[in-house]
Amino acid sequence: MVSIVAYLIFRTDGAADSDDAWAFRFLTDVRTWVDQNRDTSPVFLYGVNYLRLGVVVLVGAVQSLLYGLGAIGLIATAGTIALVLAGWRSALLAVGGFVALGLLDLWTESVDTLVLTLSAVVLTVLIGVPLGVLAARVRWVGAAMRPVLDVMQILPTFAYLAPMTLLFLIGEPAAIIATLIYAVPATIRITQLGISEVSATTVEAATALGSTRWQVLRKVRLPMARPTLVLAVNQTIMMALSMVVVTALIDAPGLGLNIVVALERVNVGAAFDAGLAIVVLAIVLDRVTTNAASRRVRRIWLVAPAVVLVAALVIGFTNDFPGDWRFSFAAPVNDVTGWAELHWYDATEAIKNGITAALLNPLESLLVTTPWWLLVAVVLAFGTLTGGWRSGLIAALATAGLSGLGLWQHSMQTLATVLVAAVLTLLFGLLLGVLAARHDRFARGLRPLLDAAQTMPSFVYLLPAVALFGATRFTAIVAAVIYAVPPVVRLVERGIRDVPATVVEAARSAGSTPRQLLWKVQLPMARGGLMLATNQGIVMVLAMVVVGGLVGAGALGYDVVAGFSQREDFGQGLAAGLAIVLLGILLDRLTQGFSQRKKVFRS
User: Fold this and answer.
1) Which pTM was predicted?
2) What integer pLDDT is reported at residue 119 of this predicted model?
3) Spatial separation of the C-alpha atoms in residues 113 and 497, rounded to whole Å
């Protein structure tokens, strides 16, 4: 009540953000200093420039290897590696997938994407696995890394791009370093988990036999943690592939560039071809690494990929994909898009205008016209009540930072879009998750769709949204819902299925109807999983809403893109990236703190 009265008294007129905020000027001055001292400052001469050169050398080596194999050689090598590591089914999938990339006439772009992905994965694994082992073995290291990894994992992909272009310029080095920073938290955490879960009895037995710490690590911990380490590599590859597609915005080559160009030209068909190629590449890499986790490989079998690799390099196949037959979905997809725009226009416009008028516009107006200090106070109070004073304070400081950056209006517009998309995501996710948890047949039918959806990079989700709703801010909401629903469904289903069977049977014996069982037993007892689903859904929605700046969402997403493309807007673009970081921290602390507080209350 107090906050409502304060809003009615002190609400503002929602004036537009300044184009000359102190943060913009400061960050622009930072860029000017970097440009002027890039070849003279010791920080760049002996640090950043050497790092950039090392990345260039690595990318060049991987590129020379893959292109040196030629199209036929790369297909044969991929099939052989998949056969040895993951079995004949994965080998057929790998060969078929790479052939499909050529048939789509996207061979060169696909290889460029694979080059960036593999280069980033090599660096990420070399850095992430040792850090994960160290975090598992040294308690204070793990404790010190935990908050850093928390922040890194909630940051949307866009947040990494502006700082990387400042330090490493646009192009492949900035793309690789941004991808490394994005993917390494998952590598570290999964590795830490795998090492920590190795049986203490086995370790004690090895130690009792006189093994040194290094021998225990090399001969006991790492071999026993192999399935988890393979999972770490799998997740690293998936995250790296997702990120290198986004780095097309900073002039990285590959399939992402095709999608960006197609979206700029509103050519849904061309974007569909590139998106399909990304999905094929993701599925191949995912299935091969996933199946490798459960398959024992004899060292002698590794000779086969080596022989094929050497033979392909010696023969020197042509880089071009052989054959003249190519197939594109661009024309039929554009025909379907045109048909949908013509026949579904009234329905899609009604949905778009209805949600915009009923939810988005009122919420945006409320947030934009709220004084910054009042929202900070509300966030502090809410965060303290639900998650404790630490969560409340962190969320309040993040909210105050949005005003300090001079991007209050754009931040509130983005926040309004995120909240509307999050509500829709949670509604769909809860509905599908409950159905999957209560009906096994429905869950089995839904599982392949969720598996495919979670292997797709974020750019792909813009395609159906643009096709149905055009380039508007509502498009970002639709894309965000499609992008975030799969993990929410999985978490909701898992939470409900984890409710003890004895409790469910007791409720049924007491005469509870299926509706009463759901609302009074399963949902309350699955509250932890539901809150985790809420947290992950909101964070993923934020990431996708920001990417929606490419298709008319405006606000912070547009500011970031403008900062890349227009030098005079660099300061504002970098400030927008920082604002996205603060929004992520704000939303994460509130939802995660609420979940943790509920656990304390229940205990």
Assistant:
1) 0.80
2) 93
3) 39
